[in-house]
Amino acid sequence: MTTTAPPPSAPPAPPRATRTVTRPGDRIFAGLSRGSGVFLLVVMAAIAIFLTVRAVSAISKDHTNFLTTFEWNASLTPPSFGVAVLAYGTVVSSIIAMLIAVPIAIGIALFITHYAPRRLGGLIAYIIDLLAAVPSIIYGLWGALFLVPHLRGLNLWLDKYFGWTVIFSKQDPNSAPRSLFTVGILLAIMILPIITNVSREVIRQVPKMHEEAAIALGATRWEVIRLSVLPFARSGIISASMLGLGRALGETMAVATVLSASPQLSAHLLDPVGGTFSQNIVAKFGEADEFGRNALIASGLVLFIITLLVNGAARFIIQRRKEYSGANA
């Protein structure tokens, strides 16, 4: 009995080239997104060019070193301007604010997300949101009328027990505590809601599987937070801290209301001396002549550069830490 082989099957047809169809809505959205990015770069470049042109005009006429002179006096002939005192006051008050606000903000965020009952956590989150909406001038008035009088006892206590550190020694015990230390405390209260809200949202994004795996291995609640939550949320917490630092560096009205500005550079943080860039600009811009305004704009350029350096350093830290945080897992 003979069998016949089946006829050979026809070769498969070559795949047809697929044609990607771009919808008009996609083209419009891509154009708007690209235009928004370009517009942002144009705005940043315009600000930098404006500050640089006006700053060069003032620095070229200054008879002292603009970066190291501990004086800001437009009445001299020729005028004398320097940003050393302003840079010192801005950086020191911001560091004090960060040292106070960041640990408290992280603690509040962890309490809301991992310890507090749902209703209590929601109430605390609502209060934090309200603090973020308070205008700066309100913080300044509260600081001048309430915080400053009530810090006198704390300043005397710090001078008595920690005056040997020089930082907390008070030269004049009778002077009002309108100092960089007071400004740092006020700025810490102001940036606390920003850091807390962002950190809270970042901590909530931690995968539940990470926490459940740690619990299954017998980890305590603190070990779960230390080993699973904080490593994953580290980059976001750094970003939240940098947002708070940005506000601390550029805060104006609250600092101007509380600080007794003085063109002196002192390591005694409890003395009413020093100043910040923003406070000096808002205090002297109205009465300054054209040259003085250019000098104030030059100080604003220095603050602009400091802010860019801080943000750049933050981005560098985030990129270095991101691969170890587990966020890309």
From TrEMBL:
InterPro entries: MetI-like, MetI-like_sf, Phosphate_PstC, Phosphate_Transport_Permease
Species: Streptomyces polygonati
Entry keyword set: Cell membrane, Membrane, Phosphate transport, Transmembrane, Transmembrane helix, Transport
Name recorded for this polypeptide: Phosphate transport system permease protein
Domain ABC transmembrane type-1 stretches: 87-314
UniProt function note: Part of the binding-protein-dependent transport system for phosphate; probably responsible for the translocation of the substrate across the membrane.
Family listed: Belongs to the binding-protein-dependent transport system permease family. CysTW subfamily.
Recorded name of the encoding gene: pstC
Pfam families: BPD_transp_1
Entry superkingdom: Bacteria
